[in-house]
Design brief:
Order of helices and strands: EEHEHEHHHHEHHEEEEEH
Number of domains: 2
CATH class of the largest domain: Alpha Beta
Number of helices: 9
Strand content: 15-25%
Number of strands: 10
CATH architecture of the largest domain: 2-Layer Sandwich
Largest sheet: 6 strands, antiparallel
Helix content: 25-40%
Radius of gyration: 23 Å
Amino acid sequence: MVAPRWLNTKTQPIAIRDVLTYLSKAALREKLYNNSYDIFGPEILTYKEMLLQFAEVRNLKRWIYTLPVLTPKLSSYWLYFVTSTSYKLATSLVDSMKVEVIGKPSAINQHINIAPLTYKEAVEKAFIIIEQNSIISSWKDAMISGVIDTQLSEHVALPHFGCFKDIRSRKVISESFTLRRMWSIGGETGWYRFNFLWKCRGYIDKLFGGVGLRRGRRHTTELVAGDALDFWRVLLASKEDKRLLLYAEMKLPGEAWLEFRIIKDVLYQRAVFRPKGIWGRAYWYSVLPFHAFVFQGMLNALVEE
């Protein structure tokens, strides 16, 4: 791997579980009031050493060569294309990697008895959580990884005026089956029908600087508001109301929503697009021929066992 020279920047990584332990044990301790404390792991490593140790944990052989000619912008593009991060998040990460982050001497361990994990131990435990499908949250779900920069609640009410709509419905055979399929959509499961077309749309989105499909989903069967779901953001996920509402974070000349809702044993699937200018209208009509089989196929797959 060819990498920028600031992979030699030093940092002091700490496991997320140790951060949470510090925070939870520090809560309401009067001795800690009105003071600040650095928390950090037991090792000082360069980013290069972290990558190589990660490879070692995963039984991979890797060689990294640093070059002085890779600019921050080029590095951001490199990180964006080879990982599941968005370009905005990649830019923030690259900018931060130029700054050395080493903790200052701290008396926190005199008040809270913790033995922070080493970097390798943290990586190993993280993969145990991944293998158990027990991830509680992911950095890919961070708002900076998408396009929404306001409250999710501002997008929950579907617009009506000036919008194009594709509304389809089918009688539900088994409500529990349909809800299970709704809550499993995307990620490794895919979009049930014509999944290669969804992948093509993801590649095109990635090519033009969008999030693409690489974000996947946090959990295979659970969804909560705020979760990233491929190139969508979950606005609302309520099994009680039998409603799942997604907002598009792909590159679009407009805004798009996709809703699944069961009302009186009927599944309603609504795609709503609010175009921006003539290019938005041109986009809608260009993809309209695909709706007949992509959206109908998806609806059928949500109902048919």
